[in-house]
Amino acid sequence: PEIAADLKKEHDSPEFVLRSLEACFKAASAYDVGKFDEAIDLWPRFPSAHVGRYESQRKDAHALGYEAIVAKYVKPMLDALPEAATAWLHAADIAMRYEQFVDAIKYVDRNMVLRPNSVEGLTALGQCFRQMSIRATDPKEKEKWLREAIQVGRFHRSTSAQTQFDATSWIFQDCVGLQLPSKEDAMRVVKNDIPLDVPPVVQSAKD
Which pTM does this prediction carry? Predict the structure, then answer.
């Protein structure tokens, strides 16, 4: 409590506020002219500067490989901005570019803790599952990840009026990739009223 009180006293001081405002102004000025490293040095908690830094250096960064990119760009950004949802989403975007979908899902999960029902997060999560399905060699694994993508799409559609039609399109596209029951299985279901695990296209459309 004493330490917290001391920090509050420091942060409430006019000198601290003026120093912070000056640093923010200088960082913004550096950002405006593309000096992203300088902007981050002046104000490390600057999400757009971290994004700009990586994107402006992406060609050289690519030559280093994914692990080096995480060490040089992703980890410093997340250390400086642990509570910034945009930083975690950017980390997920980088991971997805390098097909590191497990890492990307972890980053998206944190993004959605900080920004619940994030449309960008849900879109990225669905895409991760979709790509994992594409790359899976086991048919059961392919179906498993597609069904995960469908569930994400259904939740996405229920939480965003603005993008619900995009989510619905993804749901139908993902359902196309699921294996349909054979004619024989379908006939047995009709004759005996047996529940059949079919692609949830109709179910999704009714929700």
Answer: 0.80
